Amino acid sequence: MSVGLLAVVDDILTAALKASAKTAGVVIDDAAVTPQYVQGITPARELPMVGKIAIGSLVNKFVIIIPIALLLTAFAPWVLPWLLILGGSYLCFEGAEKVMEWFGAHHGPGQDEPRDERKLVFGAIRTDLILSTEIMLISLASLDADFGIWMTAGALAVIAVGMTLLVYGAVALLVKIDDVGLRMAESSARQVRSTGERIVRSMPTVFRVISIIGTVAMLWVGGHLVIANLAETFWDGPYNLLHAATHAIEALGPVAEWVVDTALSGLFGLVVGLIIAGIVFAAMRVAKRKAPVGASH
User: Is the dihedral of CA 19, 132, 231, 75 positive or negative?
Assistant: First the structure.
C-alpha cells in the first residue's frame, strides 16, 4: 500500500515538474510585477506586505482558480477562453495605465492613494489572480488528459505551492536586498563596505528597471492571453498575423521567434489597454461632470 502511495506521489511530482516548466515566462512576469506594489512603503512593512500578497496568492489558487478550472474543464470548457480574455484585457489596461503615467497622464485621486497598504495588497492580489490563472491553466493544459481528477488536482496543488514560494521568495529578496546593502555598508571591511554602498546606490535603478519589466510583462501576458483566446472564440485575425510574423523569421531560431512574439503581443496589449483606458477615463469624466448635478437635488 505504501509503495503504491509513493508511486502516486512520484507520478504527481513528475507531472507537476513537467507542467510547471512551461509556465516559466509567466512566473518571471509575476515576480517582476509584484515589487511595484511594495515601492514607497516603509522598510518594516515590506516583508509583511509580501507575506500578505503571498497568502492572497495561495487563496487565489486553492479557493478560486483550481476548483473553478477543474469544474469548468469537466462541465463547461467553453467558458475558460472568455474568462482569459477578460483577465488579459485587465492586464492590458493596467499596463497601459502605467505607460500613460510615464508620459505624465495621471488621473483619479491624489498620489497618496498608492501608499495605502490595504489597497496596494488588494491590487497586487487582484493582479496575481490573473497571472496565477494563466500559470494554472497552462499547467492544466500540459497535464495528461487521462491523469484523473484527483491526480490532476494533486499536481495542480503542488504547482500552486511551488510557484508561490518561488515567486514571492524572489520578491522578498528583491525588496530587502537594499537592507542587506545598508548592513554591508556599515562593515569595517573596506571591500564589503564598498560593495554594500554600490548595492544601495544601484537599487533605485534596479527598481526602475523592474517597474519597466513588470509593465512590459503585463502588456505581453495580457496581449498574448487576448490574442490566443480570441482565436479560440470568434476572431483569429490577430493570432494569424502573429503566427505569420513568427513563421517568417523561424529560420533565425527560437529566440528570435520568442522576441517577435513577445514584442507583437505587447504592442497588441498596449493598443487594447489604451482603448480600454480611454473608455474608462471618459466614463469617469462623464460621471464627475454629472455628480454635482445629482448632488444639488
Answer: positive
Half-sphere exposure of 238 (CA within 13 A, CB side): 22
Mean predicted confidence (pLDDT) in 1-25: 68
Q: Determine what percent of the chain is predicted with pLDDT higher than 90.
A: 24
Least Cα distance to 96 among 205, 220, 237 occurs for 220
* Closest-CA residue to 38 (of 127, 101, 107): 127
Q: What is the dihedral of CA 71, 61, 20, 95, to 10 degrees?
A: 110
d(CA 202, CA 204): 6
Exposure string of 127-163, with b = 16+ CB inside 10 Å and e = fewer, is: bbbbbbbbbbbbbbebbeeebeeebbbbbbebbbeeb
Q: What is the pLDDT of residues 222-239, one digit of tens each?
A: 898 899 999 999 999 999
Residue appearing with cell numbers 492580489: 125
Start-to-end CA distance of the chain, whole Å, equals 75
CB-based contacts of 152-155 (< 8 A; 24+ apart in sequence): 152/70, 153/66, 153/70, 154/8, 154/12, 155/12, 155/15, 155/16, 155/19
CB 23 within 8 A of CB 138: yes
Asked if 87 and 130 count as a contact pair (C-beta separation under 8 A), the reply is yes
As a whole number of angstroms, the distance between CA 19 and CA 143 comes to 6
Taking 80 as the threshold, does the pLDDT of residue 103 lie above it? yes
Distance CA 143, CA 188 (A): 54
